[in-house]
## 1
Amino acid sequence: MIEEPYRWVEAIANRREYIETQLAAGSPIVALGYGDGILFLTIGRARQKIFEIYDRIAMGAIGHPGDIERLRMAAIELASTEGFTRSAADVSLRRLAHYSLSPVMKSAFEQVYGAPFLARLLFAEVGSKPEEDLFLRVEYDGAIATNGAAVSQARQHFAVMSATKPSAELMESFLKKEHSVNATFPEAIKTAVDAWSVGHMALGEDGTKELPERGAISKHRQEQLVGAGVEAAVLERDGRTAIRYRNLSDEEVRSSIAD
């Protein structure tokens, strides 16, 4: 197969289709900047999807739990090693993604005789001010997307991840209209939950293809919150402590939504 390029290309296409099918049930994840930091949020009924990586870095992931755990541990190990051998200030999300995770995921995806990683990763690194926040997504094939990497693209203070491309695109369209980088914590919670609802409504063959109206979003949000838990965490911008990551309880999130 390796000696016949057209068969390799066909194998890669089949592999991509298989991975997309495996990820199709993943619950969306929202990461957005607000006045006091960066918020990660998702809604679900099962496994953990949001993790602390290092002092100023957090990760959200959808996919196979075993693959997510292997990639999470690889990220933690690299960040910890770099922080120990150099300094905590030298631990950079860009280096973590470009020199470690992306090459590993790309290699696994292209080696058609081995197993690829069934995972999508969403990272954020909090800065001393909103303009310095970095959002970065690593796909299962090693492709990297950041907030404002292209010259023609306006810098975005948020990032999303979902099981399908149409779902993620609708979430981004919603946040471009509704998100404010100077939002308060309760405002950020409400915006993130609504963005999640938009993404969730777009999943599946019968999912919405256009931005739903406000009433439909509110109804869907209320229905989903009845039987599912809210998983959320923040990277706090306050520089008085080294570790900025803090998990939010389900009750804390729900109280902000209800305010």
## 2
Amino acid sequence: MKAVVYDRYGPPDVLRLTEVERPAPKEDEILVKIHATAVTRADVETRAANRRSGPLVSALSRLVSGVRRPRQPILGSEFAGEVEAVGAAVNEFAVGDQVFGSTGFRFGAYAEYICVRQSSRVAHMAKGMSFEEGAAICDGGLNALWCLRQADIQKGQRYLIYGASGAIGTAAVQLAKHFGTDVTAVCSTKNLDLMGSLGADRAIDYTKEDFTRNGERYDVILDAVGKHSFKRCKESLKAGGKYLATDGLKNLLLAIWTPRFGDKKVIFSIPPRYTKQDVFFLKELIESGRFRAVIDRSYPMEEVIEASRYVETEQKTGNVILQITGR
């Protein structure tokens, strides 16, 4: 089968399309013929060994992914496709079923086929969902859901989502509204209308206004893109407020430190813990019209380098999709 692999850490150019052995499902696994996957921030940071975050974070990344070279040469954690074969003990899926899901940091989805356990984060696709939409659900959806639950989200709270136009941000806006909060979305000029269509109560153009200086206070501030800081946001939090971080070693340390001092705290827990039930939850929201995937661009598998370069610009809106086997 065809797969995109990388044998060393580095820029997008280390990615190459090649032939690898097609996997065979174990007794409790399904073999999925992948039609689409997503090129995510986690993909590009893992491929580069998190070099942009500094030498310490890069060294820690290599401890997880492989010190000298990647242990898993195939990136991609989100997938949507059709069940090609099932193991003898599988009873939840059948050949021909359309499915979507996430492998998390096991990766492996930049390929024509992948094997996943039927008990893993995989579900039947919602009626009318395209494969591209299926591949765009779990990255932002699961990450946003994990963050909001960490904050013990409550109806009537005021939420500010910084970086609201990315994969996590677009999902967080929709989920926060579903849970009954008042949502302020912070994004660039071009995405202001999108925020309204996703349900945000108001949107702030960060190129024209600094939300930390407008006097507003929030119960929770979610930094969905890792570009802000607790220090800058602290005065914009209400007493007892929470700053939700999505990456950064400093935030991990602050998450340990801040609960012990003062009434405002950083929440950041890794690795996140997603479940199969979380995928079902997102599917139910999609079927009821309360959640949708936001897709910026789609690339054919052969243009994975260009797709990765675009994600690295940090200018994408929602998700970037890699088409694997047809549309």
